[in-house]
Amino acid sequence: MTARASCPPKVGVVIPALNEADAIGRVISALRLRCNYPVVVIDDCSEDDTVQIATEAGAQVLPLAARLGAWGATQTGIRYFLQQNFDIVVSLDADGQHEPESLPELLKPVLHGDADVAIGTCPERVSRLRLVAWMMMKTTSGLRMEDITSGFRVYNRRAMQQLADPRATLFDYQDVGVLLRLQAAKLTLLDVPVQMQERCGGSSRIFHSWLVVGRYMLQTLVLGLSKRKLGRPMESKT
Amino acid sequence: MILWISASIGLLVAATILFLIRRDKLHVRHGVFWLFVALAFAGLGFAPSFVDWLAKLLGVGYPPVLAIVAIIAVLVIKILLMDIDQARLEVQQQRLIQRLAILEGNLQRRNKNDDHSSAP
User: Fold this and answer.
1) Is A221 exposed, middle or buried (0-12, 13-18, 19+ CB in 10 A)?
2) CA spacing 20 to 30 A to B77: which of A3, A36, A166, A189?
3) Minimum Cα–Cα distance from A171: chain B residue
């Protein structure tokens, strides 16, 4: 056994943020109250006080020189922690939807080696229309995860390496493309039921305009179809 | 007459491409493609019978249609190649932006460590 294997795993938290001044402070404070993992906020060129509030709340803020979108920001955090030899990365939204109380539950399977990726799932949170959208995405991509758009996830080092790769850079969102890449690498993905809240302030990057929703759906369906694993459907554990 | 116009345009475009490469306004990689296109235009202008011969060989009733379809196909391929190239550049740009943020993070950590070590 190596010396590294005997040490407790290093866990870091990544929060991509764009104009989340209303909620980011509360999210970071709640996280720091429950765990002492380093929290890194990737600021996607916010125009409000997100950077200042996040810094005051005790997070390290990495500012992006140009807007990269939610996945580009998350990948920056993953690359940052990978460079510092972290073993596990947690990603969660800056809008207060994800409950830090659920973090131990979500971390457990990855810490115990039962899964490479744990996905916090809460299908009850979404509208019927969004469930239809999920069904279409699952049909085209062959993915069998419960909540394929959840940003509340835990990745181990193998998953981090997969996602830090340049081939994972062109994804716009942390959903179908990311999950298909992880499955193609034969990593184990696990659905973990968690509690989620309504977002506090700010607005969703996708679900604020029908035009954006339409574009997002088209892109995601084409991406899922083109990267779909040929043969039998993919499986996930719960 | 139209054939002479086509030949003249081809030669003019070819000369412009060479001029742009000479002035470093166009990458030679792209210039080579456009030079071939321009020369093909000029060639068709000077030897119109080639299209007629090819159309007859392929069983196309109206030869100009063959020339137009061929041009459209070449342009579609070129646009596709441009999109592929743009995706490559986009990846490079995003990785650079990410790297800049990571370096800034490393700098913040170093400064913080320096502050802690220099504190009395």
Assistant:
1) middle
2) A166
3) B91
**Is A194 a domain residue?**
yes
CATH number at residue A15: 3.90.550.10
Contact yes or no for A66 and B108 at CB 8 A: no
How high is the pLDDT of residue B82?
93
* Distance of residue B108 Cα from the nearest chain A Cα, in angstroms: 8
Task: Give pLDDT, residue B79.
Answer: 94
Task: Encode pLDDT of A146-189 as tens digits.
Answer: 888 889 999 999 999 999 999 999 898 888 899 999 989 999 99
> Widest CA span of chain B, in angstroms?
92
Tell me the residues of chain A between 77 and 106 that have a Cβ less than 8 Å away from chain B.
Answer: 79-80, 83
For residues A4 and A19, give the distance between their C-alpha atoms in angstroms, rounded to a whole number: 38
Instruction: Give the chain A residue whose CA is nearest to the CA of B105.
Output: A62
The predicted complex's ipTM stands at: 0.83
What's the number of domains chain A is made of? 1
Q: pLDDT, tens digit, for every residue of B92-106?
A: 999 999 999 999 999
Per-residue burial over A21-55, b if 16 or more Cβ lie within 10 Å, else e, is bbbbbebbebbbeebebbbbbbbbebebbbbebbb
| Mean pLDDT value across chain A | 87
What is this structure's pTM? 0.83
Nearest Cα to Cα of residue B95 among A185, A93, A68 = A68
Average pLDDT over residues B55-83: 90
Q: Is residue A83 part of a domain?
A: yes
> b/e map of B80-119 (b: 16 or more CB within 10 Å)?
eeeeeeeeeeeeeebbebbebbbebbeeeeeeeeeeeeee
| Nearest-by-CA chain B residue for A83 | B102
